[in-house]
């Protein structure tokens, strides 16, 4: 019961943070590893449950999606292709190899969070090739299906390159694309034999409630405060796993 409550709380916090800023996987993934689950199983289980938060987050921003028009389809297509590649890579990655990669993946996600403000300010208002933005989104799809921590920040960067600079409009598409990436990964991982199905309902509930809550309060809480918390959390976890 205590483990289920901890997983529910971690999933709720992660869903809320993902809807607002991104990086929520830095909470749920270490929580599952702390409770004794295998890193690969933890990552796949997290992805299988994560779609709920992205879906409710997108619903919370649904009125903003109308502003995007024809931009939605190309980003949706490249996200799908990238997610397929990332899912196949994770399935074929040995557990021991993944354990060695985990600290670096977490620290990489922390770096993305740290550079987010710089990236947004640098590219704001600059017309950049949409092909490069779509390529970046393709890479984001691969990384998101393979590990996931920090993809919200990567997507906000690719959307900024396409000229989508309004944070709430970008968050609307970010959540929709995140739902797509996680759903594709889930379809692959469901048949891998490594998903811990017993905790999936708890995580789906937490992610779902957190995603909608995060979308609702996003205009009332400074995203910078959330990012600061995730930055400290992710840095601590990454260094712990790297040095242990």
TrEMBL record:
InterPro entries: TM_pro_TauE-like, TSUP. GO terms for cellular component: plasma membrane. It is found in: Cell membrane. Pfam families: TauE. The keyword Magnesium does not apply. The chain crosses the membrane at residues 43-61, 68-91, 97-115, 199-218, 225-243. It is a multi-pass membrane protein. Keywords: Cell membrane, Membrane, Transmembrane, Transmembrane helix, Transport. Its main location: membrane. Belongs to the 4-toluene sulfonate uptake permease (TSUP) (TC 2.A.102) family. This is Probable membrane transporter protein. It comes from Hydrogenivirga caldilitoris.
């Amino acid at each position: 019961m205590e483990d289920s409550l901890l997983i529910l709380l971690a999933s709720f916090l992660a869903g809320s943070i993902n809807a607002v800023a991104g990086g929520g996987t830095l909470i749920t993934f270490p929580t599952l590893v702390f409770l004794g689950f295998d890193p690969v199983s933890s990552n796949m289980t997290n992805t299988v449950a994560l779609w709920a938060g992205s879906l409710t987050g997108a619903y919370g921003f649904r009125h903003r999606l109308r502003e995007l028009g024809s931009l939605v389809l190309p980003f949706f297509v490249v996200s799908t292709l990238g997610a397929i590649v990332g899912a196949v890579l994770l399935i074929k990655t040995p557990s021991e190899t993944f354990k060695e990669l985990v600290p670096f993946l977490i620290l990489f996600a922390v770096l993305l969070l740290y550079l987010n403000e710089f990236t947004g300010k640098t590219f704001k208002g600059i017309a950049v090739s949409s092909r490069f933005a779509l390529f970046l989104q393709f890479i984001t799809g691969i990384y998101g299906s393979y590990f996931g921590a920090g993809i919200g920040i990567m997507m906000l960067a690719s959307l900024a390159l396409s000229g989508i600079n309004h944070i709430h409009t970008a968050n609307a598409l970010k959540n929709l694309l995140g739902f797509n990436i996680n759903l594709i990964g889930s379809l692959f991982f469901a048949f891998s034999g490594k998903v811990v199905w017993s905790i999936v309902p708890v995580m789906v509930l937490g992610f779902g409630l957190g995603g909608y809550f995060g979308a609702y309060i996003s205009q009332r809480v400074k995203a910078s405060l959330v990012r600061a918390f995730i930055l400290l959390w992710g840095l601590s976890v990454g260094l712990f796993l790297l040095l242990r």
